[in-house]
């Protein structure tokens, strides 16, 4: 799966505008029809499709993980905390598809979630990606903060993980090229997963893990 084909406009909708429209009877009918036609959230498309069993034919390399702390809001909780940011969020995400929450799940309506992180806490590789991808619709940057749905992490998951240090292995830059990233194991691919824990009111801790897998020697031999 090529990440560039998914990073197009129409990825994320987390606006009060959408919630307000859904509340009216006429818009609800339209929304129900549109909901049927919506593609799966991008977060669901990139959620890990592997486990310990499917990893058995592969060796694991450069495994590492990073943990982050952030604020998280349901759309119903945006006011008054995000009252100042809400107008720009409304413009940025207008008519964009929601990227999904954790594991790409979309509960729809005001139960959808939005993360707020200080830019200083966002890893360098993600900040650089945001500078390059000026047309992306995952992340709304406002002053010193960035807003995004949890599902927006998954398409660029390796960028959230620091290079590992393993004796005898060259791991520098292994997570930099998203062309090598896959949501399922294959020879030479980078795979990863995200776990999270709610740590308090509107607070979340999430851990992003990545590794490179290689086919075990002779696994295809008779």
In short:
This protein has 222 residues and is of the alpha+beta class.
Describe this structure as you would to a colleague:
By secondary structure, the protein is an alpha+beta fold. The protein has one domain. It is built from five helices and six strands; from the N terminus they run H-H-H-E-H-E-H-E-E-E-E. The protein has helices at 16-23, 25-37, 42-46, 86-92, 124-132, and strands at 58-74, 113-118, 140-142, 145-148, 190-200, 203-215. A six-stranded antiparallel sheet has the order 3-4-2-1-6-5, with helices on one face. The radius of gyration is 19 Å and the shape is globular. The two termini are 29 Å apart. 31% of the residues are buried.
**What is the arithmetic mean of pLDDT?**
86
Question: How would you spell out the order of helices and strands?
Answer: HHHEHEHEEEE
- What share of residues are in beta strands? 15-25%
Number of strands: 6
Structural class: alpha+beta
Q: How many strands, what sense, and barrel or not for the largest sheet? A: 6 strands, antiparallel
Q: How many structurally independent domains?
A: 1
Shape: globular
How large is the radius of gyration? 19 Å
Task: List low-pLDDT spans.
Answer: 1-35
User: Which strands sit side by side, in order, in the main sheet?
Assistant: 3-4-2-1-6-5
Straight-line distance between termini: 29 Å
Question: Percent helix among the residues?
Answer: 10-25%
Number of helices: 5
């Amino acid at each position: 799966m090529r990440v560039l084909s998914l990073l197009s406009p129409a990825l994320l909708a987390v606006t009060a505008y959408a919630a307000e429209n859904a509340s009216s009877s006429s818009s609800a009918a339209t929304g129900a029809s549109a909901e049927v036609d919506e593609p799966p959230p991008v977060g669901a498309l990139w959620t890990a499709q592997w486990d310990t069993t499917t990893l058995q034919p592969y060796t694991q390399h450069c495994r590492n993980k990073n943990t982050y702390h952030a604020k998280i809001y349901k759309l119903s909780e945006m006011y008054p905390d995000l009252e100042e940011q809400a107008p720009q969020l409304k413009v940025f995400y207008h008519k964009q598809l929601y990227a999904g929450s954790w594991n790409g799940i979309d509960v729809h309506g005001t139960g959808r979630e939005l993360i707020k992180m200080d830019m200083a806490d966002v890893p360098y590789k993600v900040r650089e990606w945001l500078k390059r991808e000026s047309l992306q619709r995952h992340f709304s940057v406002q002053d010193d903060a960035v807003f995004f749905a949890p599902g927006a992490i998954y398409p660029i998951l390796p960028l959230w993980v620091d290079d590992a240090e393993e004796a005898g292995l060259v791991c520098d830059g292994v997570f930099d090229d998203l062309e090598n990233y896959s949501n399922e194991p294959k020879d030479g691919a980078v795979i990863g997963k995200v776990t999270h824990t709610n740590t308090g009111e509107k607070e979340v801790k999430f851990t992003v893990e990545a590794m490179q897998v290689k086919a075990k020697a002779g696994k295809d031999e008779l």
